[in-house]
Amino acid sequence: MAVERTNRDVRTLIAQIAAGEIMLPEIQRGYVWKASQVARLIESLYRGYPAGSLLFWKTGRQHETREAALGAAQALPSVMPLYLLDGQQRLTSLFRVLTDHAEAQVVFNIETEAFQNQSAATRRNRKWVKVFDVVGPDADVFAVHGELKASGLAIADAEIGRRLNALQKITQRDFHMEVLHDFEYEEVAEIFVRVNSGGRALKTTDLALATLSARAPGFLGQLEAESSHWAECGYGALDVNFLIKALTLSLSISGKQLSSVAKLTAASRESVETGWQDVRRGLARVVPLLRDRLLVPTTALIPSLAAVHPLVVYYGRQPEGAAVAKEVEDGLLYWFLTATARNRYGGATDTALTQDIRALDAEEPVAALLENLGISEEGISVTARDLAGRNHQSPYLMFCYLAAAHAGAADWWDGEPIGATADSSGKPQYSLVHPAAALRGSGGKYSSAEINDLANIVFVSQQTAKNMIGSSSPAVYLQQVADSDRAAHAIPGDPTLLEAGGYREFLAARREVLAERITGLLDRLQPAFLDRGRAAADGAEPGSLVLSGYAGGGRRVLVAEAEAAGRHWVGWIDPVELEAALDAAAAGLASDVLVGGEAAAVRIDDEGGVAFGLGPYTVRGSLDQWRTAVKDAFEDAQPLAGCPEPTDEPWPGECREFALADAGARAV
User: Fold this and answer.
1) In what order do the strands lie in the sheet with 106-109?
2) Where are the beta strands (DSSP E) in 149-188?
């Protein structure tokens, strides 16, 4: 085995890609760079900044490859190709720019030397030059120079020439290359994961995919085909990562962490194949169960896909064509709903999954699963109080959707069932019953948090939102909607509640109806061994967390206020610092943020969730949830002068888990 070190310029590398002499091995993942990242790469090359090295693998045998996101077909290679291990995003981006790909239209401002993606504004401004027009194979730089001279620039003619010449030379920039010779695939797979981790903890799915690709060429293609199949059915979040997790769980029979990647990487090829067939059989039963019986049309509604895993494992263990008793099926759906309501997988997901997969081995698996939730004697109910203070990020969004779907709710514009109103990304469409414009026009009486309350959301299409609702009061536009259609969507019948002045009473009345319907759905699925007593849907001890934005004098402060164990806690956070920590988390890096003068950890787990220590809580949410929470907090920022003082001392007790989706909002 040897490592060859050499250099090649950009133009040569692009030619090798086109000729099929550089290929992507199966272990590579998809192209993910955004247009802004492509523009920054071109700028780095223009300015002579380091652009990193490239890692390749050369072997005398052909291996499974995956198609690169080039926008053009690669030729069949006349020599054994180099397999690209590190540098896919950079080389793919450069290929796109140099071949005029529609999504890589990078432009250069000759005066400011700035780079960005093409826009309508840059097309109209003659100072912006498309990079391809200068570096492309048929570029006429003399003509470009002449057009720029005629546009009245504030820089000298010689400087225009110098800058265009520097832009041309980006194709001559060298990349340092390291080429691994004659390494075995499994060793290359391990190297691939290491170099692509960027110093971060290795992701379970990365290591598993690399190992499986090395042992079973073509297996990644099977995973992607299965994922694509379910995406066509509206379950697009059942992606390769989900499938790998399902496979590790299906193979696990012992150990503290059943979903440990060690179970998968140590498994034989035969056991992996058996486990994969179990996963496919489980999904073939679970997706129709959720979609057709529970009426969940898309994974975009499911707050945590971890709750789907025990169902997949259970049904995957059943023989092909074996019937599952209706009471067991109902019980599993009941557990799925109660696990969601109690945020079962909002904290240490792997620990909870370990407990729940083991529960499937019990003589009465439904009872064992519910026991893990603390439900053994009485069922649960959802009350209007459970729905208060929630917004579109709450797990109860799914429950409110189900309340409408099981009542036969249809879209008000075309009469289609609400399950048919999902947008192109698979997310269910919804609007506000009381539009924000109508409520804000009532004298600033209501905050954004109140306006965007969960009880103000109605599941209708964008056509309904645009052509019927608009900015009108519901007292006006609902006159076009039949009483039965209003009722199906739980719209109160009292006309005074449809005026802006009765908005808070509208929220209270609608929460009552929604809570009653949700509890009714739970009752229909509740196992017979639970009596009709009622426990709270939220089984945790009372507590609250409110995030509020304050601004003034050019300064912004994000304030976290928490109540727990009879104590009140306040922490100040610099939103810019938090947003930087979230950007780092998106790259898989942990960081600390000052909260009231104390460093608080911001950590990302293997599932992509972000945990942030705030006073009495370790608050967990997805990256999107955190970013939305910060944005929402400042949508109606309050005067900085009214900002509460932070708590002087750190929280004295033990921190407990808190779901960001359960965070409330301050009413102004």
Assistant:
1) 115-117, 106-109, 128-130
2) 174-181
What pLDDT digit, counting tens, does each position of 335-358 carry? 999 999 988 887 667 788 889 999
Instruction: Determine the residue type at 597.
Output: G
Six token digits for residue 337: 């709903």
Q: Which amino acid is at 459?
A: F
E strand intervals along 171-290: 174-181
pTM here is 0.74
Average pLDDT over every residue of 315-333: 94
On whether the CB atoms of residues 162 and 140 are closer than 8 A, the answer is no
CA distance 657 to 181: 49
**Residue for token digits 């058996």?**
274
Distance between CA 428 and CA 159 in Å, rounded? 54
Of 527, 547, 566, 524, the residue nearest 631 (C-alpha): 547
Measure the CA–CA gap between 189 and 200, rounded to whole angstroms: 17
Question: Is pLDDT at 495 greater than 50 in this prediction?
Answer: yes
Q: How far apart are CA 307 and CA 292, in angstroms?
A: 18
Tell me the Ramachandran region of residue 554: left when phi exceeds 0, alpha when psi lies from -120 to 50, beta otherwise. left
Structure tokens at 623: 């990256």
Distance CA 524, CA 327 (A): 11
The sign of the torsion formed by the CA atoms of 208, 213, 219, 223 equals positive
| Residue among 254, 242, 246, 301 nearest 277 (CA) | 246
Q: Are strands 598-604 and 65-66 parallel, antiparallel or unpaired?
A: unpaired
CA distances from 304 to 357, 393, 451 (A): 16, 12, 26
In single-letter form, the type of residue at position 620 comes to R
Whether 617 contacts 655, CB under 8 Å: yes
Which percentage of the chain shows pLDDT scores above 70? Answer: 91
Q: Which long-range contacts (CB under 8 A, 24 or more apart) does 215-224 make?
A: 215/186, 215/269, 215/272, 216/269, 216/272, 216/273, 217/26, 217/63, 217/64, 218/26, 218/64, 219/272, 219/276, 220/26, 220/27, 220/64, 220/66, 221/26, 221/64, 221/66, 222/276
Tokens representing 143 are 């003509």
- Pairing mode, strands 591-595 and 598-604: antiparallel
How far is it, in rounded angstroms, from Cα 215 to Cα 276? 14
**pLDDT tens, position by position, 145-190:** 988 888 888 888 899 999 999 999 999 999 999 999 978 877 787 7
Q: In whole angstroms, what is the distance from residue 130 CA to residue 111 CA?
A: 14
Query: How is residue 279 written in tokens?
Result: 């996963």
Distance CA 230, CA 298 (A): 10
For β-strands 431-432 and 457-458, DSSP reports them as antiparallel
